[in-house]
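Session log. Operator J.P. requested a structure for one protein chain; no other inputs attached. Running the standard single-chain path with token output.
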Amino acid sequence: MFVLAGILFLVVYGLLVFYIGWSGWSWMKPVVSARFRWFYIVALVFLAVSFILARLFGSISFLSVIGSYWLAIFSLLLLILPVIHLTLWLLRLTRIPRHHTQKWAGVVTLVLLLSTMAYGIYNAYSPVVREYSIQIDKKVEGIDSLNIVMAADMHFGLLSGPAHAKRMVEEINALKPDLVLYPGDLIDDNLDMYLGSGIADIISGIQAPYGVYASLGNHDKFDGPIEDLIAALEKSNMQVLYDDKVMLDDKITLIGRKDRTENDRAEVETLMQDTDLSKPVLMMDHQPYDLDIAEQNQVDLVVSGHTHRGQIAPAQFITQAIYENDWGYLQKGSMHSIVTSGYGFWGPPIRTSSRSEIVQIHVTFQQ
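Structure written below.
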């Protein structure tokens, strides 16, 4: 079954690459030399296989970079080209000469591709701070409010690298957080890349009086004992909650869940056992599923990531259909859900349906 799925993927992918290649060939053929057209074919084939080669030869970093940018180009062209071809077909119904429309189709496609790429890269590497204000109707002795800063889906690695990490540290520290939360996907499936790049040391510079805490996501993976992964992450001045909970200053309960992809993760009800419900309960859950269960178990705030809000349009409509809250704020009864679009990105280093962000949550308690 796995082999058949792989063959089917390669066939479909090959047809889509051919569609892209044929479009470019037909538009450039009248205006460029034969030598350049052959270069175009070789370059397209190399780009098309680059992301596959990157997974076969993971140690060759330039293949990963090229493959990631190719996936961005590939994704955008699959959105742009059908619109261009439909427009060309409609223009055939007019008296505009066909050779004029063919000539300008290539120019328009290139302009749209480059401008959308630039927009997507800007969104990916220029984070904003999104603020939410919520009230938890529980009294906390000595604390009227809490300034929580959240970042998720950093996917630190080759393309979301040290410069992006330094920017995050500066942004978070400037917000003067009381508590910092990372609900999953800190790394991009490669712990060695994370450690070797120096990012672990960079993000250890984040400070908060109540501490820095993380839960693990579906991309926080390591070919070894999970304890080694957690130990490596905790060198960055954070505490990983792996189906575990802590009391902050004996006044606020913080729970961190295992990711939904892990078969042995505990139920919310189990994690809530012996929890003092007269005090605020905060939860990190990477994927924003089962919000009703959190509400039923009297969790006050759930913070999540994972969705990227689709990352590349129009995928945001898919995430909206899958998740009750795919991005932003939702209240269910007395439970608050906040989902971030993420600080980094997965795969193509672009965002066209969302923007890289850090979330600041102003929490006030009952007086």
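Operator note: The two ends are 60 Å apart (CA to CA).
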